[in-house]
Structure formats: C-alpha cells, structure tokens
Amino acid sequence: MSGCLPTCVGSVLVTLPVVRLDIAPVKKRSWPHLPKPDDAQRIDRALGTDGFFARWLEDLESKYTDHFAAVAELEQLAVVIQQFALSLVPGMLQTDDYARARFRAYRPNHTAEELDELVVIRTERRRILDGPSQPVVWTLLDEAVLRRCVGGPQVKAEQLRKLADMGGGDQGECLEVAPNHPNVPVRDSKTTPGPTLVFSTHGWTAFVTAVKEGHIEA
After folding, report:
1. What residues contact 30, with CB distance under 8 A and at least 6 apart?
2. N or C: lower Cβ tally within 10 Å for the chain?
C-alpha cells in the first residue's frame, strides 16, 4: 500500500487476503563436472573468449547460503512481499552500516573485505524495491526491533530514519509496528484508521485454533 505512515498496532495483525500460489521449491543446480577456476581461465586464453568462461563459472555459484538461495531467487519474481520481524530489521530494509554490524556480530573472524562483500550482496537484494516492477512490501515489526541497539546509537538512528522514510513516500511500501500489548488488537490493514477488535490472549488463541481446525470458516 503506497503512502502508509508507520503505525502502531497490536501484537497480531490480520492482513489483506492474498492469492497463495503453490510454488515448488527451487532446487539448487547441480553441476557434477564443473571446471576449476584455473581451467576456465586456460579455456578463455586458448579460445580468446575474453574471460567468458571464468565469468560463467562465477555465475553458477550462488551468492547465498543453501537455505536462502531459493528465497532470494523468488524475491526477484514477487509481486507482494509480506514479512514479520521479531528481533531484527529484515535484510532488504537494512542500511549498509546496520547490515555490517549484524554480520560482524555473528562472524567475528571475518576480514573487512569479506564483510564488505556480504553487505554488497545484501544491497543488491534491495534493488528490487527501486525497479520498475517493484513489489508491494508489507512489513510488520515487533516493538523490540526498534528498541534493540545494533551497531551503536548512530547506526541505530540512521536505521530508524530509513524505516520512517519508508512510510512517508509513494513507493508501494507499508511499515507497521506492533507494540508490547497485554491484549491482541486486530484490524484490516487496508483501513488504517478503521475499527479495531480487541481479543484477550486466550480468546485469540482459541479463535485461531478454531479456524485451523475447521470449526470456523476463515
């Protein structure tokens, strides 16, 4: 939804109905007899192909870990992306410094060059938000995401400004924050100022369970 300002809502949010497509998992390509980099370079020299085979070999290697490679590929085709973050800002919404601080925290032995490469890869994921076929991105953040200090006060402040700017433009992005709340307010995401239903925690759990078990039609 374009032009959505950051809005505080309950700890659970009912989103728009969407058409869900069953997409088979993207299997990582298996190449049993790939040449080594040195071999590719020798082929280029022998055939005068100006590095073609060396670049081709690099393109076959995924930039992402095995468990995320399929997600990264599907992001390029997405029309709508819906994401919820409980503890950290989602990857494609992170600033460079925030991402670098995250990588440094759980990869303390990596060199500066390796960390820079990881940040560049993450930056490339964000390009889909600027392209002509930009997907609509719905993001719901737990309040803890905004309060957690990653990389120091300056990095945190820059990241918060980026999140605030997301909701102020007309870029097909909607950002909402779910504060800590003793109850569960629920509303239609299409109508920000619309009415809100408030459930007790036990009441909401019972409702969701009843829907899952088929006692109530969703």
Report:
1. none
2. C
